[in-house]
Each structure stands twice: as structure tokens, then as C-alpha cells.
Amino acid sequence: MRTTGENGDVGRDWTRYWRAGDRPLEAMHAHFERHVYHRHSHESYSFGVTEAGHQGFRCRGGSHTSVPGMVLAFNPDDPHDGHPADTAGFTYRIVHIGPDLVRAVLTDANAGRGRTGLPLFADPLVNDPVLAAALRRLHAALLSDGATSLRRDEALTGAILAMSRRGATRAAPWTDPERSPTPTAARVRTLLHERLTDDITAADLATAAGTSRFAVYRTFHAAYGMSPSDYQRQLRLREARRLIAQGTPLAQAATEAGFADQSHLTRWFTRHYGITPATYGRATGEPG
What we know:
By secondary structure, the chain is an alpha+beta fold. The protein has two domains: 4-167, Jelly Rolls (Sandwich), CATH 2.60.120.10; 177-282, Arc Repressor Mutant, subunit A (Orthogonal Bundle), CATH 1.10.10. The protein is built from ten helices and eleven strands. A seven-stranded antiparallel β-sheet has the order 1-2-3-10-5-8-11. The chain has a four-stranded antiparallel β-sheet with strand order 4-9-6-7.
């Protein structure tokens, strides 16, 4: 396991980051007084526990504030931002767990019971001390150099079961039917995925969707919670993360993911994830 810290000219902000090399599992412990998260989402489930201070964020059309002991619960591809709610900043722990890993644990736990599907969380804030404690145990096991693989596996199972049984408000279907994309939004999304590194214009999207530029923006934002340009940047950041995790040099990863240069990648990577690409690279590659 590797953990890394950052301290720079951003007040008293600091981070420790850990990533498993063999499965979709990551964890971060951080304190932010000045850092502001740009609106983004993760491919994973993201569950955090606020330890100190107050963290403000917007998610699913509402403004929220997490106070000590509360659990942040983000579904995969759930757009949100984040910022200190006051000058004292906030400290929190967060884990990112891939959907396939959640499915595997729940399938094993529910064998023979006929329960299927992945959990969804209707409320991005959950006030549950038992759930918060399970997440703290998992986080501590992941960031501890002395924790065995068995201990981490047990803590992971306990946290996933707690999240599913205490925090989830609905089961599968996987996508929220209230946010099912329109054909226009779906066509635009497909084009953005297919032409990840191309310099696509608003006119290109309108032509592909067969509608106006305004209609493209409005319908896409309604379906995916962000503008087409923000979504495009996020796709590129996810590609950069994948390349960095494979050991690709940062400058090369930036170019292959569609960024102008390494500094451009670093700026947006930090705004989305709270750490630099270099920190992410140093935290990658060790088995969990």
C-alpha cells in the first residue's frame, strides 16, 4: 500500500490517498480550507464521513451541508461539487468502491435469498452512526500499513452491507428512471464517448442530435447533470486516470487523453479529485 500527502500554497490543505492495484477501491483522507471541487462525478460509489468542520455541496438539484458524523452517499455518475462552508474548512474520509465490487459482495451475501440488483441512494446525506462507524473501519483498514488483506476484505464487506441495508432507499434498476436520457441527450453522449479526444463543436453536437444547440445543452444538462463540455472533460480525466494507473508518464497521459498539455491536465485533475495526477500516480499500483 502507498499513501501520499500534499502540502502547498493552499492554506493548510492536506491529503492522503490510497488505491488498490487489483480492484476498483480507493480511499482519501483530507482537510480542505481553500480547495473547491468543480462539479464532477465518479464511476464508483463514493461514501464519505465528515470528521470535523462543515462541507457544503450541491447534488441532485439541492444544496447540502455535511457536519461531523454525517455520511455522504453518491451513486455512480452522480454529479456533485464541494467546498468548505466556512473559513475553518473541513476534514473528511471518503472511499470509492466500483459497482462490480459492490455487486460481488451483495451477490455473495444474498446467495439463495433471491435478492438482485445494486443499491441506489436517494439522499446524498445520511445521518446514521452505525453506517458512519462501518465506513470509518473500512477507511482505517485501507490506509493502515499493518492491516492484513483479510482484515480489509472483512471491513469492505461490512461497509457494503451497512450501506446497502441502512442507507439505500431503492434497489435496481441500475439507472434512475427519473433521469433516463432523451434520444437527443443519448446521441450527444455517444458522440462524446466515440470522439473523446476530438475538438468537437456545439454545431457538431447539434448536427449529430438533429436539433438546435440550445436544445442540445438543455436536454443534456437535464439528463446528466452537467454541460456537454464538462462531461467531455470528465471523460478525458477518467481516461487520464486509467492511463496513469497503468504507469503512463504524465505528459503522455495528458496528450492521449485529449488535454493540451500536462499543466492543463494537472489543473483540472486537481479541481475534480482534490489531488494532483502525480499524487494519484504515486498512490497507484500496490495490491490492496
